[in-house]
């Protein structure tokens, strides 16, 4: 199952619109933008990073370094002025392919929630399995943090769009780290359970929900801790213990960042360009709170609401 709609949105909103903004909507300037320039400024955010600002300002001033095919002074000044105001990463086709690799574990997990024997895209397939299709207006739980929710009321289209975005965010939180840093069975159980709570229903989800890894953990623990008890007695204690373990782990995954806001800037030069997109965002040897902030509400905070700690970006 393809993710055509997500790719199209990335290209339209993430690449085409910002580059049109930089070039003032002039298609002729787009044709004269050379590849070295694209490579030099991609993933920079001069509107918020002082280091990126200085890099672009210095290289725009030096004729021939950036936009070498555009020599008219007024046009170069206009490009520089607009470019230096860009307050988000400048995306390109290169970053698209890297970000697709970054999304791959989450996409593969979500694909496991629905039948793969279809020509539909993943979004179309999920829409087919969305249980709220029959109602004109309904409600949806919006996850604020691991343990807190709000309620949204709307039509089925808006509910589905919010549901699928939340599902992607949870799958990223669960599966963005390299495989050796997670237990896939636990992650898939959590993803399936969350999908079910959002209103998605399928045989695949029901099958995943039958294999509760927390219950297996509880059974193994009781078997070792209470070896002389009868199996029936141990089984009676399994489900309550599994529930307690699940809730304990959920509470442990919630931390001080639950009520805090993500960092926009950090001290120093921030993350190197190569780590501003793709799988390299999550280094194996580095702990980060960024994943803990990946909830719908925090993804849409304005720049003014984010924390600032310096002049570099992460």
What does this structure look like?
The protein is mainly alpha-helical and 314 residues long. It has 3 domains: 4-83; 103-206, no CATH class; 213-254, no CATH class. Helices cover 52% and strands 7% of the residues. The chain contains 13 helices and 5 strands. The strands form 2 sheets. A 3-stranded mixed beta sheet has the order 4-3-5. A two-stranded antiparallel sheet has the order 1-2. Strand 3 (263-266), helix 13 (296-299) and strand 4 (307-308) form a beta-alpha-beta unit. Helix 6 (93-111) packs across helix 8 (156-175). The longest helix is centred in the last third of the chain and has 23 residues, at 231-253. It starts with a helix and ends with a strand. 23% of the residues are buried.
């Amino acid at each position: 199952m393809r993710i055509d709609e997500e790719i199209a949105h990335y290209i339209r909103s993430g690449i085409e619109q910002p580059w049109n903004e930089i070039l003032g909507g002039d298609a002729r300037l787009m044709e004269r933008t050379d590849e070295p320039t694209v490579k030099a400024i991609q993933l920079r955010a001069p509107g918020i990073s002082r280091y990126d600002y200085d890099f672009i300002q210095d290289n725009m001033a030096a004729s021939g370094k950036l936009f070498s095919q555009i020599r008219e002074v007024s046009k170069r000044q206009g490009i520089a002025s607009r470019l230096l105001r860009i307050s988000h990463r400048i995306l390109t086709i290169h970053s698209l392919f890297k970000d697709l690799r970054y999304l791959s574990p989450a996409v593969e997990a979500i694909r496991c929630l629905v039948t793969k024997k279809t020509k539909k895209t993943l979004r179309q397939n999920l829409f087919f399995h969305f249980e709220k299709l029959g109602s004109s207006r309904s409600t949806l739980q919006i996850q604020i943090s691991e343990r807190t929710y709000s309620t949204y009321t709307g039509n089925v289209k808006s509910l589905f769009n919010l549901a699928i975005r939340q599902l992607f965010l949870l799958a990223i939180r669960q599966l963005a780290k390299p495989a050796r840093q997670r237990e896939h069975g636990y992650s898939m159980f959590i993803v399936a359970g969350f999908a079910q709570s959002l209103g998605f229903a399928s045989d695949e989800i029901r099958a995943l929900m039958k294999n509760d890894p927390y219950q297996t953990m509880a059974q193994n623990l009781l078997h070792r801790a209470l070896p002389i008890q009868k199996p029936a007695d141990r089984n009676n204690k399994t489900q309550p213990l599994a529930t307690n373990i699940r809730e304990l782990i959920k509470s442990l995954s919630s931390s001080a960042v639950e009520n805090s806001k993500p960092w926009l800037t950090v001290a120093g030069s921030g993350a190197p360009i190569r780590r501003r997109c793709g799988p390299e965002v999550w280094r194996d040897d580095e702990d980060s709170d960024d994943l803990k902030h990946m909830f719908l509400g925090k993804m849409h905070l304005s720049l003014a609401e984010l924390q600032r700690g310096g002049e570099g970006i992460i």
